[in-house]
Design brief:
By secondary structure, the chain is of the alpha/beta class. It folds into two domains: 245 residues, FAD/NAD(P)-binding domain (3-Layer(bba) Sandwich); 131 residues, FAD/NAD(P)-binding domain. It has eleven helices and 16 strands. The strands form four sheets. It has a five-stranded parallel sheet, with helices on one face. A five-stranded parallel sheet has the order 8-15-9-10-11, with helices on one face. Helix 1 packs parallel to helix 10. InterPro entries: Auxin_biosynth/cation_transpt, FAD/NAD-bd_sf. Pfam families: Pyr_redox_3 (PF13738). Its EC number is 1.18.1.2. GO terms for molecular function: ferredoxin-NADP+ reductase activity; flavin adenine dinucleotide binding; monooxygenase activity.
C-alpha cells in the first residue's frame, strides 16, 4: 500500500492531537484545523467538570513522546483531573511546546469535506481523487485545502440534543432559549448568577445531569430560596445511580451515591418517565408541560432548564462523501454492532482500528467521540488506539494497522458522560440506555 503524504485532521482535542502525533511518527504531514482559539476548545466549555478517568488513561503514547522532549511534567498518574486541567496541563502544552505547533491552524471551522472535483454522484476516477476541505476563518473568509486523507476528530459537543424525545425541540424551546442551557453549566462558578435562588429543572439521566443536579443542590444550600427538579426519561433510578462503592472508577461511584442520598433525603424532586410536551412563559416563570410523568402530569413552574440529554454527530460537513453509517447509531457500519448501547458497556467494546472505521470513500475516517455517533460509551483510550491504527494504515503499514494494541480494563473505564443514559457500568443492557454515557 502506498503511503499517504498529507492528512487533514479536523479538531485539536485529545484524539485529534493524538492523530497528528501518530501521523508524524509515521513520517506523514498532518494539518490540524481547530475551530477554537486553543487546543481542547470544546473541553474548555466544561472545564469545571471532573472526569472519572485517572491521568494514566488520558495521555496518548505518541503525544507523550513529543512532550517528554520539552519541560513538560507528567501529572500524577492516579490523579483524576478536571476537564480544564486536561486542557491546561496536557493539550495546550502538546499543541504549543512540541512539533505539533507548526501543524495546527486555529479559528478554522470546517464546513465541508469532499472528493476533489466530485459530487457524491460522481464515480469516474473517484478512487484516485484526493480530498478538498473547506473551512471558515474567524473573519468569515473561506478557504480550501487539499489532502490525501482526512481524519474527522471534531467531536459532538457543539450539537447537543434538544428536550424532545423525538429529537426535535419541543414547542417553545427555541423561543425560551434565554432560560435554557445545554450540557453542563458552571453552576458554582461563572454561571452561578443565573441559578441563584432559581427553580431549575434538569432534564437527562446521565452523569452530566447528575453533576448539574448536585452542583445546584450545593448552590441551594448557599443561596435560598431555590429548588431543583430532576426529570428522567427512565424509571429505573437504581440502575442510573450506578455501582456505588463497587464501581470500578471511585469518582463515578461517588457521584451516584451522592445523587442517591439527595433523592432519599428529599432535597430534590425526582420526576421519572418524564416527557416534556412544551415550554411556555407564564406569570410564574417558565411553564413546562409534562406528560406521562409517574409523579403526575401538568405544568411545572421553573425559572431555568438545564438540558443534559446527550449529543449527536454533525454529519452536514460530509454530505458529498460516500459513507457507510449505521442507520440507528450513526457510527461506521462495521463499528455500530460493537457499540450499540443496548448491548455493550464501556469495557466490552472491542478495541478497533482502521478496518472497522473505513468507508466507501477510502482514506476518510471519523474518530473519537464522533465515531461513536449517538452511542455514549466512548473511551479516550479507544480513540487513541483508533488513530494509531489509522496512521499506520495511511503510512502503508497494514500489519501495524491490524495489530490492536489496547487492552481495556475488565469493568470499563468511562470518561465524563455526555448522554441520556440509565444503566451503571457493567449492568445488564436496557432499551436505549448505556453503562457509561
Amino acid at each position: 500500500m502506498q503511503s499517504k503524504k498529507t492528512v487533514i485532521v479536523i479538531g485539536a482535542g485529545p484524539v485529534g492531537l493524538a492523530a497528528a502525533a501518530h501521523l508524524m511518527q509515521q513520517g506523514l504531514t498532518p494539518i490540524v484545523l481547530e475551530r477554537g482559539d486553543n487546543a481542547g476548545h470544546a473541553m474548555t466549555q466544561w472545564a469545571h467538570v471532573r472526569v472519572f478517568t485517572p491521568w494514566k488513561y488520558l495521555i496518548d503514547a505518541a503525544v507523550e513522546t513529543l512532550l517528554k522532549a520539552t519541560d513538560w511534567q507528567m501529572p500524577d498518574a492516579e490523579g483524576i483531573p478536571l476537564s480544564g486541567e486536561i486542557v491546561d496541563q496536557y493539550l495546550v502544552p502538546a499543541a504549543t511546546k512540541t512539533a505539533l505547533a507548526a501543524h495546527i491552524r486555529y479559528g478554522a471551522d470546517v464546513i465541508a469535506v469532499t472528493k476533489t472535483g466530485h459530487s457524491k454522484l460522481s464515480s469516474h476516477q473517484r478512487e484516485t481523487a484526493d480530498y478538498t476541505v473547506q473551512y471558515r476563518s474567524a473573519d468569515g473568509s473561506q478557504h480550501r485545502l487539499r489532502a490525501d486523507a482526512v481524519i474527522d476528530a471534531s467531536g459532538t459537543w457543539f450539537t447537543p440534543n434538544p428536550i424532545g424525545l423525538d429529537g426535535l425541540p419541543v414547542p417553545g424551546e427555541i423561543e425560551n432559549a434565554a432560560h435554557i442551557t445545554y450540557g453542563i453549566p458552571d453552576v458554582l462558578g461563572k454561571h452561578r448568577h443565573r441559578y441563584q435562588g432559581q427553580r431549575t429543572l434538569v432534564v437527562g439521566g446521565g452523569h452530566s445531569a447528575i453533576n448539574a443536579v448536585l452542583d445546584l443542590l450545593k448552590l441551594e444550600g448557599i443561596d435560598s430560596p431555590s429548588h431543583v427538579y430532576w426529570g428522567l426519561r427512565s424509571t429505573n433510578v437504581q440502575k442510573l445511580l450506578g455501582g456505588g462503592e463497587q464501581d470500578a472508577l471511585p469518582a463515578r461511584g461517588a457521584l451516584g451515591l451522592a445523587a442517591k442520598d439527595a433523592i432519599e433525603s428529599g432535597r430534590l424532586t425526582l420526576l421519572t418517565s418524564m416527557q416534556v410536551n412544551s415550554v411556555s412563559t407564564s406569570a410564574k416563570g417558565l411553564a413546562v408541560n409534562l406528560q406521562h410523568t409517574r409523579e403526575g402530569d401538568g405544568p411545572l413552574a421553573v425559572d431555568q432548564i438545564i438540558v443534559a440529554t446527550g449529543f449527536s454527530p454533525d454529519l452536514s460537513i460530509t454530505g458529498e462523501l460516500r459513507l457507510s453509517l449505521d442507520s440507528t447509531v450513526e457510527a461506521p457500519a462495521a463499528l455500530a454492532p460493537l457499540i450499540d448501547p443496548n448491548l455493550h458497556s464501556c469495557g466490552t467494546v472491542m478495541p478497533h482500528g482502521a478496518d472497522v472505521l473505513s468507508h466507501p470513500d477510502g482514506d476518510f475516517y471519523v474518530v473519537g467521540m464522533k465515531s461513536y455517533g449517538r452511542a455514549p460509551t466512548f473511551l479516550m483510550m479507544t480513540g487513541y488506539e483508533q488513530v494509531r491504527s489509522i496512521a499506520a494504515a495511511l503510512a502503508g503499514d497494514a500489519e501495524a494497522a491490524n495489530r490492536l494494541q489496547l487492552t481495556l480494563p475488565e469493568t470499563g473505564v468511562c470518561n465524563a458522560d455526555y448522554g441520556d443514559a440509565a444503566v451503571a457500568c457493567c449492568a445488564e443492557p436496557e432499551q436505549q440506555t448505556s453503562c457509561c454515557g
